Amino acid sequence: MLKRSIITIVLALIAGNILYTQYQTYSENPWTRDGQVRAYIIQVTPRVTGQVTHISVADNSHVKEGDLLFEIDSSMYKASLNKALAAEKQAIALVKKAKNEEARAVKLEKRTPGSVPVLTLNNLANAVETAVANQESAAAMVEEAKLNLEYTKVYAPTDGYITNFNLREGSHVIANNPVVALIDEDSFWIEGFFKETDLQGVDPGDKAYVTLLMQNDVVLEGEIKSLGYGISKTDGSTGNTLLPNVNPNFQWIRLAQRIPIKIKLNSVPEGVQLRVGTTASVQIIK
């Protein structure tokens, strides 16, 4: 009986020691499974309106900066450029005409003082200024038409991954309306949501270990880049009837809020592909 009691006490002490050790480890190195892979997502937006005539990429494909994504019908923009060039030529001709008339009047006035009224000379000078201004405006219209023609070809602004690509040839795109999502491949980070009670002593630069749910046999190393300075307030926000929203809670339980922490990975091994929105576990080494 005594032997059985001793064994029970020893096992209880071992179990208690294990629990205490695990608690100390968790307190010193907080851990959460509430983490996500994040990256900057660029909304590729056409600068001009028109029908899509050619597509050079497929859904879920990798692209390099400067790769052609798709083309918009350029016929209308070519016509606009030709029209702008013609208007510029006309403006240049009007400048020459105005300068010739002014020069002729000035010469006549010098040869025969008083032969040309001062008001006429002033009007001729103003006509030259107006013609020059019209020429500059026409040149600006040509530049705009050239840009619009260039914008009919849409290129990748950075290296990354095309995803949820539903554009098809014949589709009509509208200027300044996003049509393609491009994930910047050089911007991936891990965002972990830790309880506020676990963040004492946690600082930027601390080491972190990340395990992806989709590849839990690989442990990624990184470091904390920043800790969030605020989260959205739920209680007290205005409801539909202009009354405050107040969530019920238990008086004897205070739930710890979760603060987002950004973690930059030091490197990503070959064969590991980060995907935005996937789940990750994060452990911080203070």
From TrEMBL:
Keywords: Coiled coil, Membrane, Transmembrane, Transmembrane helix
Coiled-coil features, chain-numbered ranges: 81-111
Multidrug resistance protein MdtA-like barrel-sandwich hybrid domain span: 42-182
Residues of the p-hydroxybenzoic acid efflux pump subunit AaeA-like beta-barrel domain: 187-284
Entry similarity comment: Belongs to the membrane fusion protein (MFP) (TC 8.A.1) family.
Name recorded for this polypeptide: HlyD family secretion protein
